[in-house]
User: What shape does this take?
Amino acid sequence: MDFTEKTLNSQIVYDGKIITVLKDDVEVADGHKSFREVVKHSGGVVVLAIHEDKVIFVKQFRYPMKEVLLELPAGKLEKGEDPFLAAQRELEEETGYCADKWTDLGFVYTSPGYSDEKLYLFKAENLHFTQCHPDEGEILQPLEIKIIDAVKMINNGEINDAKTLCAFFRGMPCQK
Assistant: This one.
């Protein structure tokens, strides 16, 4: 079965600093014509940082949700930026930690139904503290939470950030 769609025309609806929104006219595999709204995004990184028996989280107000969320350190990729270098940068900026050991945990598509955003997941271990230096206007609080407590917080709905859940469970060994 052919699932491909052919782009016939693409129009920029919005071009912002973080995203570009396209309206694409497409021909689906069965010949019908339709359109797709696509959010173009440079992508980002998420870091599961393990310090002894704890995970490093950040508490941060997220404007679209209008609430404070508990998340793993993360950030946007600059255009053409290497994801590994971005992960190192974000970990130190947001938490003050650097890591001696890094593991690539792959990537996830955040919302492939309408966005091309790809998040690269990393695990950082053997941490040592330097200093926090968040981006201008970024107000956050790093927290160390025991792994077992983090699992409980995820299971009881205290941690709901999808990128955090993906990196956490991809990077943690299965608990039996």
